[in-house]
């Protein structure tokens, strides 16, 4: 994601926000938030920071998929806008190597939510990822509102092209396939940020796909759009909630506001009550892909307002992502899971455009970069780089 372009847009958004009108929105009262359900279904949405029934979801998975010697494979994909090309290249190369596993759980944030759907569905959908992340330009994602229409909008950009692309790509056939895989115990989880509560919402897309109605199909698509809704730039997504016969709306934006990447709910303790073998998990693999840089990178400073704010926001996002990866690493090592981590390192010799949010030429380079790293066996790290002195706290419970 091009921070300079985003910064300029956001400054304008803040300046004009006092003039904008508000769309119809009836928020859930705080005292009713614990009763908020989508389609009155407890299995559609979980919170990222509490147990809230998610152990029942894991139990559902284990009952269908566990057997002696079972190897569990988790895949977590971060946000990053057009940088999703990196994870797309990795997945395609993984397929070509004929060593790509069937993932038991796939999670995604922002652009990672889009990649996650097709990573979950398997090799036959690799071509969809290739097209999405090597041929996309700004015009395929958004149109700029004119200065006068912005006054009546909740975002600076009109994402009708992105909405059309998502709704055309996520066909009823694809949702049917997601539902079929969910019935086998495989999980597809996507994160968005619930603005009212300032919390990560974890959406169980398999459960949504199982409903099989036009309304549920729209919700599936809306969750993907919400997970990628950059605040201020892209419009937030409203999700209808019914409580005691009254309809309310929750407001959701980019999952990257609360997490750059996630794999496990924060309440997971790994105390032997998750998998039926109640023992060591050397046969479990956690794969984490960060669609962007991970290590600090030097940039000669400029004494200007735009540079200071732009560089600071970029650094803030990078270190949030580092913390999120470290959180996954600590949980994985505490459970004796094998940790595998990929990120865009300094060996990428092509710079992204400063004028575009989605630059197909750069995305193609990033796609091939991820593809070649995967095939060269130089991709995966067994610890987050820069944290190599960390000793795993195997007895620590989270």
What's the topology here?
Blueprint (H helix, E strand, L loop, with lengths): L2 H14 L28 E3 L6 H12 L6 E6 L6 H13 L8 E5 L1 H11 L4 H9 L8 E2 L12 E2 L1 H10 L2 H11 L4 E8 L4 E6 H7 L2 H14 L9 E7 L2 E9 L29 E6 L15 H30 L3 E5 L17 H16 L23
Parallel strand pairs: 2-3, 2-10, 3-6, 10-11
Antiparallel strand pairs: 1-7, 4-5, 6-7, 6-9, 8-9
Total of helices: 11
* Largest beta-sheet characterization: 9 strands, mixed
Strand/helix succession: HEHEHEHHEEHHEEHHEEEHEH
In quaternary terms, these chains amount to: single chain
Overall pLDDT confidence: 86
- Total number of strands: 11
User: What's the alpha carbon Rg, rounded to whole Å?
Assistant: 21 Å
Q: N-to-C terminal Cα separation, in Å?
A: 32 Å
Class derived from helix and strand content: alpha/beta
Work out the helicity level: 25-40%
Strand content: 5-15%
What overall form do the CA principal axes indicate? globular
Mind explaining what this structure looks like?
With 398 residues, the chain is of the alpha/beta class. Helices cover 37% and strands 15% of the residues. The strands form two sheets. Strands 1, 2, 3, 6, 7, 8, 9, 10 and 11 form a nine-stranded mixed β-sheet that branches. β2 (72-77), α3 and β3 (105-109) form a beta-alpha-beta unit. Mean pLDDT is 86; it is low at 276-281 and 392-398.
């Amino acid at each position: 994601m091009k921070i300079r372009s985003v910064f300029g847009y956001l400054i304008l958004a803040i300046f004009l926000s006092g003039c904008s009108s508000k769309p119809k929105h009836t928020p859930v009262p705080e005292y009713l938030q614990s009763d908020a359900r989508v389609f009155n279904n407890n299995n559609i949405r979980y919170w990222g920071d509490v147990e809230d029934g998610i152990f029942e979801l894991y139990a559902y998975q284990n009952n269908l998929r566990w057997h002696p010697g079972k190897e569990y494979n988790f895949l977590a994909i971060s946000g990053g806008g057009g940088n999703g090309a990196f994870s797309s290249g990795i997945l395609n190369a993984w397929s070509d190597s004929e060593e790509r596993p069937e993932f038991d759980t796939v999670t995604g944030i922002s652009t990672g939510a889009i990649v996650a759907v097709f990573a979950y569905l398997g090799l036959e959908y690799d071509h969809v990822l290739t097209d999405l992340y090597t041929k996309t330009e700004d015009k395929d994602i958004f149109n700029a509102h004119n200065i006068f229409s912005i006054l009546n909008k909740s975002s600076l950009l009109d994402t009708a092209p992105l909405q059309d692309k998502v709704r055309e790509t996520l066909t009823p056939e694809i949702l049917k396939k997601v539902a079929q895989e969910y019935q086998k115990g495989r999980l597809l989880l996507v994160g968005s940020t619930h603005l009212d509560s300032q919390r990560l919402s974890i959406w169980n897309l398999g459960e949504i796909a199982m409903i099989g109605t036009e309304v549920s199909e729209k919700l599936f698509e809306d969750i993907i759009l919400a997970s990628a809704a950059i605040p201020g730039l892209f419009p937030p997504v409203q999700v209808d909630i019914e409580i005691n016969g009254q309809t309310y709306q929750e407001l959701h934006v980019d999952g990257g506001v609360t997490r750059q990447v996630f794999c496990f709910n924060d309440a997971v303790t790994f105390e032997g009550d998750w998998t039926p073998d109640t023992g060591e998990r050397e046969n479990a693999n956690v794969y984490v892909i960060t669609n962007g840089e991970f290590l600090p990178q030097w940039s000669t400073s400029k004494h200007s307002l735009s540079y200071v704010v732009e560089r600071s926001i970029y650094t803030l996002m990078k270190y949030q992502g580092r913390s999120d990866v470290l959180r996954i690493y600590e949980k994985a090592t505490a459970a004796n899971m094998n940790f595998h981590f990929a990120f865009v390192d300094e060996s990428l010799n092509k710079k992204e455009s400063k004028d575009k949010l989605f630059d197909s030429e750069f995305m193609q380079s990033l796609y091939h970069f991820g593809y070649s790293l995967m095939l060269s066996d130089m991709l995966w790290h067994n610890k987050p780089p820069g944290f190599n002195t960390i000793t795993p706290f195997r007895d620590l419970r989270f």
